[in-house]
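Sequence design from tokenized structure. All designs in this work follow the same two-part layout: the structure record, then the generated sequence. An example of the structure record is given first.
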């Protein structure tokens, strides 16, 4: 199973890019973030024509997450994290594909920090850690994938000294990510490529992509039940260079059958 995550930065505006990548990469499962589309505007027909079934949680203008599966419709388990019934932002959807539980995540950005948006990010992270711990308690084959909006270490950011006070790199956020992984999750990309400088996001400004001035903020975390099944992991960096591309590139892992 090839499982990928891709922050599309507007699923309708970037639909040609998404369809081109699906045809080229042929992933079996895809987590999408930042749909920027209400529920009724999700391009389900175009994706079905491309061979992918979908479940999605849309939101007008902002946020939005979806889960795609090649040749099937994922069996939906949950939309939205537990712990805050008043949270209406579309940032989590979970389903089962091929016997694997897949949680698609779009974690809050949190800027400016400090401030209310940063506080919301930390509360959301706390809810994620609590729910992720519950997933592990049953020793289920699960993957949490998406845009976590955190660079875990200095290795994951171009010129880390410039990001010390940013909500994606503040100690509280990096600590929260480290605590999540310490539950037993495997950061697949980093585990298979230790010490390598790999990015998944390049800003549109200052020629960032062509200078390779990037960030690693898109992650795939595998539960212990899948730890020995992870065969490969990578970033389709070239997609970021396509015309009208997202500022993120697809990130993927290959699981043994």
């Amino acid at each position: 199973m090839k499982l990928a995550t891709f922050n599309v930065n507007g699923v309708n505006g970037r639909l040609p890019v998404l369809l081109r990548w699906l045809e080229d990469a042929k992933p079996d499962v895809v987590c999408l973030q930042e749909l920027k589309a209400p529920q009724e505007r999700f391009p389900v027909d175009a994706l079905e024509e491309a061979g992918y079934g979908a479940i999605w949680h849309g939101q007008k203008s902002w946020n939005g997450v979806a889960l795609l599966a090649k040749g099937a419709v994922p069996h939906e388990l949950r939309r939205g994290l537990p712990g805050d019934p008043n949270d209406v932002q579309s940032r989590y959807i979970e389903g089962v594909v091929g016997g694997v539980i897949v949680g698609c995540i779009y974690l809050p950005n949190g800027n400016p920090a400090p401030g209310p948006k940063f506080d919301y990010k930390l509360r959301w992270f706390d809810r994620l850690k609590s729910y992720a711990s519950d997933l592990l308690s049953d020793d289920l084959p699960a993957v949490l994938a998406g845009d976590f909006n955190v660079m875990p270490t200095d290795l994951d950011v171009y010129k880390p000294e410039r990001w010390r006070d940013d909500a994606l790199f503040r100690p509280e956020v990096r600590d929260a990510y480290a605590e999540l992984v310490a539950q037993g999750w495997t950061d697949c990309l980093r585990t298979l490529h230790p010490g390598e400088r790999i990015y998944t996001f390049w800003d549109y400004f200052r020629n960032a992509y062509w200078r390779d001035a990037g960030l690693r903020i898109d992650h795939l975390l595998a539960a212990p039940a899948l730890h020995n099944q992870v065969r490969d992991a990578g970033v389709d960096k070239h997609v970021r260079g396509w015309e009208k591309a997202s500022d993120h590139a697809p990130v993927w892992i290959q699981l043994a059958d």
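Residues 2-255 form a domain with the Deoxyribonuclease I; Chain A fold (CATH 3.60.10.10). We note this feature because it recurs in several other targets discussed in the main text.
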